[in-house]
Amino acid sequence: MNPLKFFLLERLSRYAHRRGIDIYIEDFSFKKGLSLKNTDIDACGERILIENLLLKIRIKELFRKRIAIDMTSENITVMPGYLSNKDFHLPDLKGNISYEKRRKSTSIDVTLNQAIHLSLKHTGNADEGELFIKTSLLSIDRYKQLFDGHIISRFMNTVYSDTLITFLCCYKYGHTSPYPKFNSTFQYDTLKIHPENYALSKMYLTDELSKRNHLAKNYKKLEEIPEIIRQTVICTEDPSFNLHRGISPTLTGMTLKSAIDQKALKRGGSTISMQLIKNALLNGERTFTRKTEEAILTLLMENHYGTGKQDILEIYLNMIEFAPDVYGIEDAALFYFDKSSSKLNAIEVIVLTYIIPRPIHFYEALQQKTEQLRRNLLQHIRQYLPVMMKKQIIHRENVSSADIKQIEFSDKFGVLVLDIL
């Protein structure tokens, strides 16, 4: 490599590294722009390999630093990361990047194989921004083709449909708003999915959970589960459960904000419906491809197949994991408190909701009576008890200070004293 090329690559690598990006380029030329051969990009742990990358740089104001870059690339491979759990091959990519130092703004517009358009804007050192996604000319068949080898569920691998669907998603966030704004719409004429007798119904979902041994031994119909349990679980897990159609705009917005801030998918953002789909049909991998399939299946379950909220809640309350081989509210009540779920007091119900996101960790910590468990559990009770009272799910006269100071579990666990703060 000649000295000039070496110098330019060094400057480019240093510039990218200061922005959290490691880049390796085998060779480059100035044919029709800056053509990079065999480019290896590592951005915040997400590694992308590109066989050819063509950049056309347009400088509008050099000294004020208004720069625009047009780019086209081919033969893209996303290595394992939070986008995918194994090599993921993308079609050709076209887009542009603009950067303006004076306004501290960066914008990225990318089109993936004429089917997916992505627009991302940052302003004010990323304190405010907008993410816009549009898919067109996309069907279930086309989606499966794009994500070939990354489809997890037997359901998605079985069904087929050539109905074209347009999906619009707009996400805005800013330091002046407590919650990011997220809106999405779906457009299609008549959605036809084959085979028609293959549906995300209550029976299909419970059968899939049974095959995975992920269903309560003491299965309870929804009307057999006390109202206090139903409402408390909704309040702690998915407050807008009865308002959304599978995906919560608020939870999704907060998840996207967290992913942008932390540059990783660490926050789940799953609704009760999405958790049901994940446990019945998918797996626990926290990757973009799995989350995408989870979202599609959830939307199909509630909007196309019409599985009702009551059925979803019933299955969910009977499939929640609470300890190794312990699933469902009734089995959890018997396991931890040696009583039926109908006999639980208000604090014991809140304790069960604390277990939901961390069943194995809770089980092990309870055996050891760790100080962290006592502290965190007490904090959870103090956080949600006033909320339950305000919503009149729990009445003040049904809660005593003794119930909060210590939790009387079954004989195999004993008493856990919480009054340590």
| Amount of helix | 25-40%
The topology string of helices and strands comes to: HEEEEEEEEEHHEEHHHHHHEEHHHHHEE
Identify the overall geometry.
Answer: globular
Low-confidence stretches: none
Helix tally equals 14
What structural class do the secondary elements suggest? alpha+beta
Alpha-carbon distance between the two ends:
66 Å
Overall radius of gyration:
25 Å
Mean pLDDT, to the nearest integer, reads: 88
Sheet with the most strands?
11 strands, antiparallel
Strand content: 25-35%
- Strand tally is 15
Polypeptide structure, described:
- There is one protein chain.
- The chain is α+β, with helices and mostly antiparallel strands.
- The chain has a domain of 81 residues.
- The protein has 14 helices and 15 strands.
- Strand 14 and strand 15 form a beta hairpin.
- It is globular, with a radius of gyration of 25 Å.
- This is Transglycosylase.
- It holds the Pfam family Transgly.
- Keywords: Transferase.
- It comes from Prevotella heparinolytica.
Brief write-up:
The chain has 14 helices and 15 strands. With 421 residues, the chain is α+β, with helices and mostly antiparallel strands. Keywords: Transferase.
